[in-house]
Specification:
binds 7N-methyl-8-hydroguanosine-5'-diphosphate, alpha+beta, DcpS/DCS2, 14 strands, 4-stranded antiparallel β-sheet, phosphoprotein, HIT family, subunit A, acetylation, Phosphorylase Kinase, domain 1, 6-stranded antiparallel β-sheet, mRNA splicing, 5'-(N(7)-methyl 5'-triphosphoguanosine)-[mRNA] diphosphatase activity
């Protein structure tokens, strides 16, 4: 049986995925300092749900909007994937309640020991209107963005600072948060980056591997800013990212999907590394641009992403969608 368990250098107690300070608790500070990995008092015991933003039975995930100590909060609860190496223990310490039996078929409710009933929990607090909207189920619409649309609609929108705060990105780059999660760093100010697990991944199995590479350069907002000048940076991310993932997780480049989002949610260049076969959120053709394609396009045309028309979906409540509508582009 293949061992799909992630080789970990740290202990296995890193269950605390809280990403902001919860008032009146000692969970963490806003820079994500101490407290990571420690068992904290239940910061969510007083959580009051105001509404369900989305629920997905197949992915076994629910996203709630509510209040934690009078602050708006978004909580994402997700059942975690099975890990093969814990199966024996799951069976040993569990009780079985029969639901039905018919011929050779029977179904049960298995109650495993609490240790195996972990629920991955992500908290955004205080959550802004944008966060509440981001996690809400909404209809999407395809947008066509010409070079001119980018200059007159999208760029002013990004520069207006109405997009998501990049505080968490700067915390990572300045080693104020998630320091112990860094998997690889190339410190070069031009071609360097930090590779670390995306907060969507619990790092317990490689089946849903998800890492992000965040570039050290501060002036690259998105794919649109890339020119041939950035090729050494992009090639470096691809090569060193793939090499690191092979060494650390025994996953060869033939098993990796490496891509950028357009539009991203966060306008500081970063690259997504996910396992091929894992249906990662946002890996579809409407948003994901393979890094290898991006490199080739810039090799054949240094201004490729400055000039071309881009297509991407925007959701009903996206402010950028309103801007395209106001400009008569939808
Ligand atoms: P994106 O394409 O800008 O936006 O990707 P998306 O969220 O719409 O895909 C940003 C990526 O960064 C996503 O995959 C997020 O899950 C991930 N991410 C976001 N935050 C706030 C954090 C964080 O605080 N830590 C880590 N490690 N990853 C994050």
């Amino acid at each position: 049986m293949a061992d799909t368990t992630v080789k970990r250098e740290r202990g296995s107690e890193e269950t605390n995925e809280l990403h902001c300070e919860v008032k009146k608790t000692k969970v963490d500070d806003n820079n994500g300092g101490d407290g990571v990995g420690a068992k904290s008092q239940n910061a969510l015991s007083g959580f009051k749900t105001s509404n369900v933003l989305s629920v997905n039975a197949r992915e076994k995930r629910i996203v709630l909007h509510g209040k934690v100590a009078d602050e708006d909060a978004v909580v994402i609860l997700e059942k975690t994937p099975f890990t093969e190496d814990t199966m024996d223990q799951v069976f040993k310490g569990s009780t079985l309640k029969l639901d039905m039996k018919n011929y050779i078929y029977s179904t049960y409710q298995l109650q495993a020991s609490p240790h195996y009933n972990e629920i991955k929990t992500t908290l955004v607090c205080p959550a802004t209107e944008k966060h509440i909207s981001k996690y809400k189920h909404q209809e999407s619409f395809f947008v066509e963005e010409t070079k001119k649309d980018y200059e007159t609609i999208t760029l002013p929108f990004i520069e207006d600072q109405t997009t998501f705060s990049l505080e968490w990105v700067y915390n990572i780059l300045q080693k104020k948060a998630e320091v112990e999660r860094i998997v690889y760093e190339d410190p070069d100010p031009d071609t360097g980056f930090i590779l670390l697990p995306d907060f969507k991944w619990n790092q317990k199995q490689v089946d849903d591997l998800y890492l992000i590479a965040i570039v050290h350069r501060m002036n690259i907002r998105s794919l649109r800013d890339l020119t041939a000048e950035h090729l050494p940076l992009l090639v470096n991310i691809l090569q060193k990212g793939q090499m690191t993932i092979l060494e650390r997780y025994s996953l060869p480049s033939s098993k990796l999907r490496v891509y950028l989002h357009y539009q991203p949610s966060y306008y500081h260049l970063h690259v997504h590394f996910t396992k091929l076969g894992y249906d990662a959120p946002g890996c579809g053709v409407e948003r994901a641009h393979l890094l290898s394609d991006v490199i080739q396009n810039l090799q054949s045309d240094p201004q490729y992403y400055k000039n071309r028309t881009m297509y991407f979906p925007l959701r009903e409540e996206d402010k950028l969608l309103s801007k395209f509508k106001e400009a008569g582009r939808l």
